Amino acid sequence: MKLILLGAPGAGKGTVAKLLTELDGSVQISTGDILRGAVAAGSDLGKQAQDFMNRGDLVPDELIMGIMGSRLQEDDCSKGFLLDGFPRTIPQAEALKVLLKDIGITLDMAVNIDVPRDVILDRLTTRRTCENGDCQAIYNVKSNPPKEEGKCDKCGSAVVQRADETTEAISHRLETYNEKTAPLIGFYENEGLVVTVSATSSDDVINAIKAKLAS
Ligand code: ADP
Ligand code: ZN
To answer: Using CA atoms, how far apart are residues 72 and 131, in angstroms rounded to an integer?
Structure first.
């Protein structure tokens, strides 16, 4: 499957993408994970992205298109992909449209995961992430804590609150979403690709996507 996952920070795009990869071997492509990996590795890309990310601002479109232009042409994408956190602005969506046309790929749909704001706020403040750039497993202090406090079940690295998960950065990320990313719903509606799923359980979201793909 070739899907775009739309939704506010904390809507569950990453969780849903991970579950979908288990269905048919499609790959999850998360620009947030790629960028955090680059920051952790101290690469040029990471240095350029870090300040924007810590403030809860978007990284410039050119940097993102530089990453995605090559990522989408890697071999593993031929089986399918789940775009998680990309595109995030109208210029990125327009650039993606041109890129996909050039490489001969058609999207199945753009899934808009719609979750109430109070749920989003609660999730973002209680979310914790493995700081190992190659792992980045996600936990929640209330609903899904690591077995040993502060330590990743998968790799043993420290589980921490992301630098952009302070109250200020979270409210800024949500404003940025409303201003820059929410308009993509209209963009993909015009393309006839939007499927809106209003569900807070990731299993319900997966089932709605499966039903739509089968129809
Ligand atoms: P969330 O969906 O929880 O906000 P992400 O992991 O998707 O988190 O993104 C974290 C940060 O990485 C964003 O706040 C932004 O700074 C940067 N980022 C990720 N994807 C993009 C993108 N497509 N365009 C611009 N910035 C991005
Ligand atoms: Zn880990």
So the answer is: 26
Q: For residue 214, what is the enclosing H or E element? A: helix 202-214
Token code pair at residue 169: 């950065």
Active-site annotation holds for 162: yes
Q: Whose CA is nearest to atom 16 of ligand 1?
A: 53
- The ligand 1 site (C-beta within 6 Å) comprises 9-10, 31-32, 35, 52-53, 56-59, 64, 85-88, 92, 164, 173
Counting ligands in written order, the one closest to the CA of 134 is 2
Q: Where are the chain's structural domains?
A: 2-26+79-115+177-214
Sheet of strand 127-130: strand arrangement: 138-140, 127-130, 159-160
User: What CATH superfamily classification does 2-26+79-115+177-214 receive?
Assistant: P-loop containing nucleotide triphosphate hydrolases (3.40.50.300)
Ligand 1 atom closest to residue 88's alpha carbon, by position in its atom list: 23
Q: What are phi and psi of 181, to 5 degrees?
A: -100, -40
pLDDT per residue over 159-213, tens digit each? Answer: 999 888 888 888 999 999 999 999 999 999 999 999 999 999 999 999 999 999 9
3-state secondary structure of 63: helix
20: which residues sit within 8 A by CB, 6+ positions away?
1, 3, 26, 28, 82, 206, 209
